[in-house]
Amino acid sequence: MDGQHSVYIPVLKQGGNSNTITIVNGVKTAVAHLLDIPSVLKTSVVLDQSAFVKIAVKNVINEGTIGLCLTALMILLFLGNVRATIAVLISIPISVLATFLGLNLGGSSINTMVLGGLALALSRLIDNSVVVLENIFRHMEMGESPAVAAERGGKEVQLAVLAATVSTSIVFFPVLMLYGVSKYLFTALALAVVIALFASYVVAMTVVPLFCSLFITIDPGNEHHQIAADMSSEATKGKKRRIRVFGVIVDNFNLAFRRLETWYVRKVGETLERAGMVVSVISVAVLLSFAIYPLIGKAFFPRTDPGQFVVNVKVPAGTRIEVTDDYISKMEQDIRSVVSPEDLNMIVSNIGITPDLSAIYTSNSGMHTAFIQVSLKEEHKTGSYAYMQKVRERLSDDFPDVATYFQAGGLVDSVVNQGKPAPIDIQIGGTNLQQAYEIAKATAAKLRGLKSVNDVLIPQDLDYPGLELNINRERAGLLGITPKDIVDNVITALTSDGMIAPSFWVDPKTGNSYMLTVQYPESQIKTITDFRQIPLRSPKGTNTTPLQSVADITEINTPTEVDHYQLRPVFDIYVMPKAEDLSQVNKQVESIVGQIQIPKGVTVKVRGTIRDMQQSFSSFGIGLVLAVVLVYLILMAQFASFSDPFIILLAVPPGLSGALVFLFVTGSTLNVMSLMGLVMTAGIAVSNSILIVEFTGTLRKEGKDLKTALVESCKARLRPILMTSLATILGLIPMALALEPGSEQYAPLARAILGGLTVSVIVTIFLVPAAYLLIHRKEEHALIAGEA
Fold this sequence. Notes:
It is a single chain. The chain is an alpha+beta fold. The chain is 57% helix and 11% strand. It contains 24 helices and 15 strands. The longest helix has 41 residues, at 747-787. 42% of the residues are buried.
């Protein structure tokens, strides 16, 4: 540890509901209060996986808070009333509290995925309240009293708000079809968002109208909603000045909005005159934009900066541990020269193995292997992957005879890769180990030549020096010694009897149990001659005989480890891509694997995260189609129409198109996070088109002709659509920028929603009225003909 020889104790948490932060805090408390230890013994926690969790939680909360403030500012500008803004924002704490209660009742915990989902949904949680509040304000502007406006305004949009809530919730259906790790990651996120959405609907239909009827009044004659009512008559001049300044800002904003509204109404009229052409042009543009899909990189999960990295080291087989230790010391010096002292926290190296049960807690397979864990400070300026590349280049130049393999070693990668050190694992299986190993080495050599690959590692070796004992059973039998006795004596001499005859002593004072083992002094067996002279004795005998008298000793090459997959011996080839994109690397890997001449009895399989990615993508695609079908069926039942739900769903393709384009422009990959963003985009886009279609139907029932109803509906619903959409867009900007360490995992999700919603809003407000006119025009003509 930082160059000092130390005892390293890894602590692994159990599965189930065990909490990382609680466990780490408990370990730190225990270490800080150790009793009866020598004063020269220094204890410290060297690597802490909870740090990433804490940072991720803090950053999600910070970004969510910033997004919420921007959202509140946008609502305040649109409404020009502080109390109205409070009425909208009050839905957030109530919805979040209801979510936490629901998760607690279901036995779920609050984790980064839940918090990330809520942070992304914060802007969406106020949409229902905004729609209800805006409609109540519209009735107040028409001269109705607050109580009457609250009642009528709420009832008027209750169907649209319910339809939007159900539609946004049902699009999370694909989560049920996910596979493996992604299912467990997104189930909690989807559940939290759905609970919060329905809670926000209840708040919007109950709390918001009540708040408006009691605390909000406006002057219908003003261009903007009065804010002076929010200020007491005893206010100071400074406060009045600030109110006047804000009033000017609201006046200018409302003036700009009125101009936009006038322009929009004119353009909607022109759109309705050329409805067929508008629908055709938009449809072709959307279809052409999907051609960008093959150009977008594919990954299972976005790369995150874990604030650490691990270097797996393999020196020539047979190297003594003292020499390996010297190699590692020099490598540590190189790392210190590359990583800035302002960023470096600690370096911990684990060298070789101890031949006992502790070997299962290390990735080392022999005395010639080691791994170096480099921990960065929380406030590090350079990212982990940038340091990994610099250290990789330095070690390659200084140690050409040493094989190195770099991995992030973070909590996210461990979960996503299911404990594997790489997202791509090529397994060469076969009972003929030498034959399978030669194929693995040849394949690894080809993979190292790929420009898209950083590191390639075969963890197993077949050339580790070993000694083979050929026991002369007849001679041993004459001495009363069995082969088992011989092996037990040799194991005890070289290591200990801990694996063959473990004993325990319980301290009567503390109750602690200690393992007792017996072994020879390390200085007693240093040469092969010493090994040949190991004394053997039968359990009942008193005389000893040297090992060489009953066994022939031969030097051989042995495997360092033999791994199995479904009982079959395999060699692993771990492939670490240079970039986040796995699709291109996988194509090249599959091409190389396809060129292998596979002998009889040998199997070659590509496994790892890449397979989980492919299955999750397939599940997402099927689930999204089924979700759209379910949304259509629900809307069909609510609107009692076959055509209106189809018009509403026309907002989905432009949203998906915008999301893909935005991901491509920002250089983001298409992964399970961005796919979840596509799912959420579909639900949010539907919400906007519902407002136009639902109100158009209401106006037509009041007797207005089709075009007039469409124009008035678009004009009346422009403000709530822009309010909710801009609030969501502004709320997602901090998370889409991924400015904080650990926030990279949510950035693709936020970017997908950001791009999809932006394009969807722009296209929907013209596409939906044009499509509505084309579909319902025959009904209008039939009605006019019937009246004639």
